[in-house]
Amino acid sequence: MTSHQQPRAASDHAMWEAVLGLHAFVERQLAHTLQRRHGVGLSEYRALEVLTQAEAGECRMQELADRIGLGQSSVTRLVGRLGGAGYVYKDNCADDKRGVFAVITDEGRKRYQDARTTYADVLSSALNTASADDRFARAVQALRSA
Fold first, then answer.
1. Which tens digit of pLDDT belongs to each residue from 22-64?
2. Which helix (H) or strand (E) holds 91?
3. If we measure between CA atoms, which residue out of 109, 20, 18 comes closest to residue 56?
4. For the chain, percent helix, then strand, then coil, each to nearest 5?
């Protein structure tokens, strides 16, 4: 390793730590507010968002897991909770008997629409707050200028 790579690695490490800290800060704000105001967790909100935007309002369970960054067993439990609330249901794939889809219901679409503005407002507020914090200011600036 050359000497000019070490400062870069230290700088990259510091920036990555800032990004992770920023992520944790914003996620806590979003999760707390979505749960308190709308009765959904952050992963549940993101699943509803993916399903709302999906063609025909349905998505294979594995694709849903990939899109929201959860493992297969975690997304199965998540869809179970959303199903219990009446926001989604599971449907078997006609072409592949092993394939299972999560399908959003009208109630799920309504819950997502109700929570969407809250999500956007809290996201902006959290980023504004973080931009005033020396630990996160550069990361927020970089994200907002991208």
1. 999 999 999 999 999 999 999 999 999 999 999 999 999 999 9
2. strand 88-92
3. 109
4. 70, 10, 20
